[in-house]
Amino acid sequence: MNNSRSFFLYLILLIGVVALSTSAIFVKLSSAPAPIIATYRMMFSTFILLPVLLIRKGTIKELINLSHKQLILGSISGAFLALHYGLWFESLTYTSVASSTIFVTLQPLFAFAGGYFFFGERLRGLALGGGILAIIGSFIVGFGDFNIGGKALTGDSLALIAAASITVYFFIGQYLRKNLSLIVYALIAYSSSTLFLLAYSLFCRYPLVGYPSVDWLWFLGLAFISTIMGQTIFNWLIKWVNTSTISMSILGEPIGTCILAYFIFGDIVTLKQLIGSTIILFGIFLFLIYNKPRKIPS
């Protein structure tokens, strides 16, 4: 692949990471319970994509002609996406945000292992080194608030499983997107994720309505900015950029969140966060330079 095409893919990847960085901001702004936020995030994302299904030629036919295998795998993908949100949000009730974030950002380790065993992907030494360096940077960012023992251990364990869950979601997407269009795959994953999250919210007896008017604006922001412009971009890229690269790039999300939190909430960026963020960015840079994406169509 020539450099201009690689630059294009990485530019789109950057846009996706920046959009995804707004997730924590919208969640923090909302007063609704975490499962409700996640439910409406995926529900509104599904509604936003539905008109595209009707407008884009051939997508309805593609949806009708889905094989049982594609439908089942797409639904399983949505289940893992819902599991990721459910476990990650739940982990925040047991441990600190920093500790939870550290374990969630370990997802590249699952991606490296899964890519090796299931897709035969081999990472160059410098690419692998960059990945490990970026993970170390994540630990530096959250080290001061790291919790061990008691309820914190439960929260950290949930966050770690959440990291594995989102990695499985991306791996299924990497497989299905070889033969499915972006809109059809995203609709299957998002709609099934909505159903799982809705069932969980109802099981926990969270009210579906009665939240402040501004919360619905935050739900829409999560759907359009964080999901459509973030998560959906990753679903598009996964056809040409492997899961390891996506997972590595998502390590940049906390950096974007810190910057936004500084301007929106006035949160102070510490020297430790600056050092850790610099290491993360350098690690991601090394990984992207030495882990080239697959060829994209002309």
Question: How are the SSEs placed, and which strands pair?
Answer:
Layout: H1 3-20, H2 23-29, H3 34-55, H4 59-64, H5 68-91, H6 97-104, H7 107-119, H8 125-142, H9 150-176, H10 182-203, H11 213-237, H12 243-250, H13 253-264, H14 271-290
Helix pairs in contact: 1-11, 2-11, 3-10, 3-11, 5-9, 5-10, 6-8, 6-9, 7-9, 7-12, 8-14
Elements, N to C (H/E): HHHHHHHHHHHHHH
Query: Could you tell me how far the N terminus lies from the C terminus, measured between alpha carbons in angstroms?
Result: 11 Å
Uncertain ranges: none
Radius of gyration over C-alpha positions, nearest whole angstrom: 19 Å
Give a short account of the largest sheet.
none
Beta fraction of the residues? under 5%
Helix content: over 70%
Q: Determine the structural class based on helices, strands and strand pairing.
A: mainly alpha
Quick recap:
The protein is an all-alpha fold and 298 residues long. Helix content is 77%, strand content 0%.
